[in-house]
Amino acid sequence: MKVFIVGIAGGVGSRLARLLTAAGDRVDGLYRRPEQGERLAAEGVHATHGDLTRLDAPALAELLHGTDVLVFAAGAGGEGGTAATTAIDGTGLTTAIEAARRAGINRLLLVSVFPEAWRDRERSDTFEHYIDVKKRADAELADTDLDWTILRPAALTDDAGTGRINLSPALVHTDITRDDVAATLAELVHTPQIHHRILELTQGPEPIADAVRRQARN
Question: Could you tell me the pTM of the whole model?
Answer without folding.
Answer: 0.95
